[in-house]
Amino acid sequence: MTTHGEPATGLDTPPVGPVSRINRTGSEPADTTPAPAADTTPPSGDTTPPPSGDAAAELRWALTRLRAAIDVTAYPLTLPGADEARQLASALRAQLADYLLPRLARLDAPLLVVVGGSTGAGKSTLVNSLVQARVSSVGVLRPTTRSPVLVCSPLDSAWFRQGELLPTLTRTTTPGDRPDKLHLVTAPALPAGLAFLDAPDIDSVVEANRTLAAQLLAAADLWLFVTTAARYADAVPWELLHTARLRGTAIALVLDRVPPAAAEEVTAHLTEMLAAHQLDAAPLFVLPEAVVDGQGLLPGRLTEPLRAWFGRLAADSEARAAVIRQTLDGAVGALGPAVDTLATAADQQATAAQALDERVRSGYRGARRSVEEALRDGRLLRGEVLARWQEFVGTGELFRTLEARVGQLRDRIVAAVTGRPAPNVQLRTAIESQLVTLLRETAATAAEQTAAAWQTHPAGAALLTPELSRPGDDLTERAERLVRDWQRSVLELVRSSGGDKRFVARSAAYAVNATGLAVMIAVFASTAFIPTGLEVAAAGGTTVAAQKVLEAVFGDQAIRSLANRARAELLGMVDHLFDEEAARYLARTAAAGVDASHGDELRTAARLVGEARPVGGEAAAR
Question: What was the pLDDT predicted at 251?
Fold first, then answer.
């Protein structure tokens, strides 16, 4: 193997003596029980920062608060960029749990080198060769590495078994193909203080493998990227290398399987690409094509330079601390822009939810105005209601002269002889029918218009269901109940309007039902029976006659007050009905769980992380 390029910052380790070997053979006993995750979360509700002066503790507290803010922020509405925000939130959440918090809790833990690369790059063969043991499966089937394999010194195995790093992966000492299991292997030839993690292919055909590879790379102290002479220009590796550079992660590269005749040309081209991507400081190791031995290991003379480089790193605690400091500080520094992106997406979610809710409220405010206008413009005095009112009032003289008991006797006689309901019953039924029809039609219009408004919004279209475009299934039943309740309330209003003794005496002499019906009719005309040209034309002058009847009995101010109060009560009931209809929509946005405060909470948490981040990441080394 030959090397090319200068070592990256923090990787320029001085030459040291021979790497010590651990005189121990064998491996740890099988253990497939889930490892307990490190609990770096403060007690529930504990938002008190640690005492000042402990930089590492302050940073851990700030990162824990940030993780909580990310956990509670969702991006459920279908908006441009929402998928990317969810993926970014998941990646940040994983990096905080898998790497940042565990690493800050144990800065003295072994340095973790995650070996990543494209399919067939020879990662597993390289890992086996570096630790001089067949610890990771190799083969022609792809993907080869299905379950991540972590190789460490027997002296470091306890740290990785405890599960503080990558706590979501179950530890096991037996090979498998489950991506949620971390296969732990000890290698006596590997010095303490250093561990290799053979990750799945970054371009695997299996999505779960690609996701896991990205998660593992985010948990690395150092990324060792392995590519080949045939694949080094592929887009996927460069995307991840670009991400690593933005995070400030320590990186080293291996160019594998290079034909000797093309070594100079390929190496020069790759060097140019690294410089163009501002990665020219990363060490580059070039490995020529070679035949593996009977154990599947590369010739030792080819891997010796790379093994020696890692050996010096393992033996030098200050060099390892420099790598950790570089990667840790870079990862913390990269949180700010990433969280700002999440906060912007959270704001967009809140704005969209508010816009959808406003479209709902606007639609049903329009329905309420339609009902109010119908009560003012006289349209409800047409048709059946007008006919029944004229029949009930007649010339107006009968209502003026008959007392309640005589009127009730007359009604019973007429109903018995003709088999028809009494005029007051017919009028009350007509009023109910007219109002129910109005409510049903306005509710249907509001539902259709609101559905159309949501359909034009990407988030609204995703939340729409067919039943929302029409009124609730029980709307007619609720409207009928509303009108009946209102009619009863009008009668009770007539009975209880006792502030005026003259009014009480006269109302006792006339049928309460008749008075209540007259008040209901009064509600159907603007300003309590002050007739407009439309009302006179619609009602044929009978509203004026009814007004004179009521004024003669109760007085002008009394009937105005009764009609106004009855109208206000009816509109209040209509508001409640339409609120129930609108709630079907509002429940959809509420169930999404969008909170307008989440964006600011994310920004605040990111600011606290920035304030707790020591200049130059020096706390990472302490």
Answer: 94
